[in-house]
TrEMBL record:
SMART domains: HTH_ARAC. Residues 171-269 form the HTH araC/xylS-type domain. This is Helix-turn-helix domain-containing protein. The keyword Electron transport does not apply. PANTHER family: ARAC-FAMILY TRANSCRIPTIONAL REGULATOR. Pfam families: HTH_18 (PF12833). Keywords: DNA-binding, Transcription, Transcription regulation. It comes from Pelosinus propionicus DSM 13327. The lineage of its organism: Bacteria, Bacillati, Bacillota, Negativicutes, Selenomonadales.
Length: 275
């Protein structure tokens, strides 16, 4: 979703939060986990080292240092480590007054912020991690203070980076892809929506998302195809057309390359598991 930094700052300035915990995990190369859900409270993910791809409610995010990710409660969650390095990350789980969610859409949303290289955020995050391991009212107060210090640093850094330009265009392009992925899209066609040349648009998209526009489109289509295989009885040819590929043979090859399974094999396995 599009994030208004000022509105998000107002949200954190006015809500009453309870920090549930601060956890750290190191996942080995090749690690993956599908079909899970986020906890029944909000979370903020801080990549520290390595790369991973996470899907919140089917939307992919490229997890790497310099980016911060927010996820709402009870969202579908898939994740897999990218590359040959371990993926090291921390996550803050927190809860807000349920009544706030009606006033601020961010409470239950997933979104990404780019803080860039900021050692201050890391320092505050590790202090919060250590503080949450100590019981008592004083550590609880200190934890809230550190949390808001972290959010201040994140939002200030993200605001400064957005002033460099291009963020709004990329966010609009992502929404366009989500609305038109079933059509015959090309990078020049999408770039033309914003009066940009293909190379200029691809540069901005890569800069703000960590992946090229064509790669993002393919990943989103494959994700939607998985959902259709799980939730409908459509044929492979029908699903192929539904996600923007008129040639079911090409779609099947691409699907297998991206997931390791033929769509027909995945569909058969799902039917056996549910039958």
């Amino acid at each position: 979703m599009n994030v208004d930094i000022n509105e998000l700052a107002h949200y954190y300035a006015t809500i009453d939060i309870s920090i549930i915990d601060v956890a750290r995990a190191i996942v080995p190369p090749g690690g993956r986990c599908f079909g899970r859900y986020t906890p029944p409270f909000s979370g903020i993910v801080f990549p520290l080292r390595g790369r991973a791809r996470m899907f919140f409610n089917g939307v992919p995010y490229e997890m790497e240092y310099g980016k911060i990710f927010h996820a709402g409660p009870n969202m579908s969650l898939d994740k897999e480590v990218q590359g040959r390095s371990e993926w090291d990350f921390m996550v803050i789980h927190y809860q807000t007054d349920a009544r706030v969610a009606d006033s601020f859409p961010y409470a239950l949303a997933h979104f990404q912020l780019e803080s860039g290289y900021n050692t201050r955020i890391n320092d505050l995050l590790h202090r919060l991690y250590n503080s949450c391991t100590t019981s008592g009212k004083l550590p609880e107060l200190r934890a809230k203070s550190l949390f808001f210090g972290i959010m201040d640093e994140i939002l200030t850094s993200a605001s400064n980076r957005r002033n460099e330009g291009g963020q709004e265009i990329v966010e609009q392009a992502i929404e366009f892809i989500h609305s038109h992925y079933m059509e015959s899209l090309t990078v020049p066609m999408i770039a033309g929506q914003y009066n940009l040349k293909s190379k200029q648009f691809a540069y901005l998209f890569q800069k703000h998302t960590g992946m090229g526009p064509n790669e993002y489109l393919i990943e989103y289509r494959i994700r939607r195809a998985k959902e259709l295989l799980c939730t409908t009885s459509c044929s492979i040819a029908e699903i192929s057309v539904c996600v923007g590929y008129t040639d079911p043979y090409y779609f099947s090859k691409l699907f297998k390359k991206r997931t390791g399974f033929c769509p027909s094999m995945m569909q058969s396995c799902l039917k056996e598991n549910t039958g």
